[in-house]
Sequence to fold (274 residues):
Amino acid sequence: MGYSLVMNIDAPQDHLPPLLGESDPAPFEVVNRDGRTPMLLVCDHASRAIPAALDRLGLPDAAFERHIAYDIGAEAVSRRLSASLDAPLVLAGYSRLLIDLNRPPGHPQSIMEQSDGTPIPGNAQLSDAAKRQRIRDLFEPYHDAVNRALARIWESDMAPALFSVHSFSPNFGGKPRPWDVGVLWNHDPRIAVPLMELLEAEGLNVGDNEPYSGHDLAYTIDMHAGAAGLPSCVIEINQDQVRDEAGVERWSGYLERALAKILEQPGLHRVERF
Fold:
């Protein structure tokens, strides 16, 4: 795929100390662990937190109000959906600026030295040891939590569905993005196609694999669902529409109504290859 993994399995681990201190939050949060709906919600870019030891990566406070640090509104929408659908949810505990949980380690967009024109001083010329530390302490615990949450749903003798909540900037790299929402998917249409139809019926401008494409790379759903034949997709909401409580409530309503219908589809909860 044109990139190599940062982490060589034969490389020494350098016995690096933990990146997270006692006052730092955990690398993930599990909400509604015992939710009865066999759909796992995940939010890869829920947080803008930075471990105290990394001194905000040398960035001003204003940088953490922007999309480069986290997906604005995505955590709030995810929490509402978890409650309304009675579905378990795994939230990321740290900013995407440290390591992007929706990219494989070693990918050019995993740990970036610049994002949307903004240099990230704390990521400049990062050593392999420091990259491995972020993989070990942030990336792996989050994805292990996703695996455990899916395994818990499997225990109910029901194949789980996976639904990933993101938001996008309506302008990126100087180019406008006109959609209200994007639905990202690869080969499995079971959630994505009816979701697009239901959201369009709400009068929304829906992007089919816009502003990003699930055909290119959507690591979390590819890794945890696509490889296992589980139904999955990613939602990308225009961040300007979920900046306040009213917007979060409106979008949670759109998604709750749509997903409630989709979850009733015969044959959704089974392993299929597309």
In short: The chain has five helices and eleven strands. Residues 128-154 form the longest helix (27 residues). Residues 117 and 141 are 30 Å apart (CA to CA). The helical segments are 74-85, 128-154, 192-201, 219-224, 245-262.
